[in-house]
């Protein structure tokens, strides 16, 4: 029916007009924001997807950075930042969590993280703590061994130089795998011959 088509056309024109008006309003707000010297960022009222996309476009044309925040469609809003105050990842994370951004608190957190990193580095440079018991076991057993016994025993004890040491020459097997296998096979054949 022609009247339905006419009504549709009228609605589309109205919609288009509203978008144009909205864009003009956003352009005015954004230019006010740019001229406001003490304002590094501005948060806009929640708006629908189309309005947000118009605002993002206006911001981009004006040379600003813009982000949308908020979980559900009804409460999603746009924040516009001047380029020199572009938000850090930390700042963006705070907005995504729905928190207010507090530069002083963030700076304090950053300082604490830095301090922790420095302490960790210092500990790494110091190296691991020397192994060994935190206390002197001799104190624990003094009533059994006395205070001189252990020292006297330590003086008379001689270390067995060979203990636990295998000369490198004994360790290294210079035979090839084939030679070693042939030797094993030969020993096996010899045993079998003896068994028979």
Summarize the structure in words.
By secondary structure, this protein is mainly alpha-helical. The protein has a domain at 2-87: R3H-like domain (Ribosomal Protein S8, Chain: A, domain 1, 2-Layer Sandwich). It contains nine helices and three strands; from the N terminus they run H-E-H-E-E-H-H-H-H-H-H-H. It has helices at 2-35, 49-61, 89-96, 103-126, 137-140, 142-145, 149-156, 168-171, 177-195, and strands spanning 41-43, 65-69, 77-81. Helix 1 (2-35) packs across helix 2. The radius of gyration is 41 Å and the shape is elongated. InterPro entries: R3H_dom, R3H_dom_sf, R3H_sperm-antigen, SPAG7.
Structural features:
single chain; 196 residues; mainly alpha; Ribosomal Protein S8, Chain: A, domain 1; 60% helix
The percentage of residues in β strands lies in 5-15%
Structural class, by secondary structure, is mainly alpha
The global form is elongated
Determine the number of helices (DSSP H or I, runs of at least 4 residues): 9
Biggest beta sheet summary: 3 strands, antiparallel
CATH topology of the domain at 2-87: Ribosomal Protein S8, Chain: A, domain 1
> What topology, given as strand order, has the largest sheet?
1-3-2
- How confident is the prediction overall: mean pLDDT? 82
Unreliable spans are: none
In N-to-C order, the SSE pattern is HEHEEHHHHHHH
Number of strands: 3
The H-level CATH homologous superfamily of the domain at 2-87, spelled out, is R3H-like domain
Helix fraction bin? 55-70%
> For the record, what CATH class of the domain at 2-87 applies?
Alpha Beta
* Second-tier CATH architecture of the domain at 2-87: 2-Layer Sandwich
* Rg value: 41 Å
Distance between the termini: 112 Å
Biased composition (Basic and acidic residues): 99-114
Organism: Copsychus sechellarum
Protein name: SPAG7 protein
Domain R3H: 20-83
């Amino acid at each position: 029916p022609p009247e339905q088509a006419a009504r549709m056309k009228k609605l589309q024109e109205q919609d288009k007009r509203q978008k144009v008006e909205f864009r003009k309003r956003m352009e005015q707000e954004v230019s006010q924001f740019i001229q406001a010297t003490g304002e590094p960022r501005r948060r806009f009222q929640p708006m629908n997807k189309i309005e947000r996309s118009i605002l993002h476009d206006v911001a981009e044309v004006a040379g600003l950075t813009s982000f949308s925040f908020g979980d559900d469609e009804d409460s999603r809003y746009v924040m516009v930042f001047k380029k020199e105050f572009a938000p850090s990842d930390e700042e963006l994370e705070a907005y995504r969590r729905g928190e207010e951004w507090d530069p002083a608190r963030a700076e304090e957190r950053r300082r604490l993280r830095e301090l922790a990193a420095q302490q960790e580095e210092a500990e790494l440079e110091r190296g691991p703590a020397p192994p060994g018991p935190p206390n002197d076991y001799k104190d624990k057993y003094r009533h059994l061994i006395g205070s001189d016994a252990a020292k006297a025993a330590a003086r008379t004890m001689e270390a067995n130089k060979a203990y636990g040491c295998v000369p490198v020459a004994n360790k290294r097997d210079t035979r090839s795998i084939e030679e070693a296998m042939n030797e094993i096979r030969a020993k096996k054949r010899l045993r079998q011959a003896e068994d028979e």
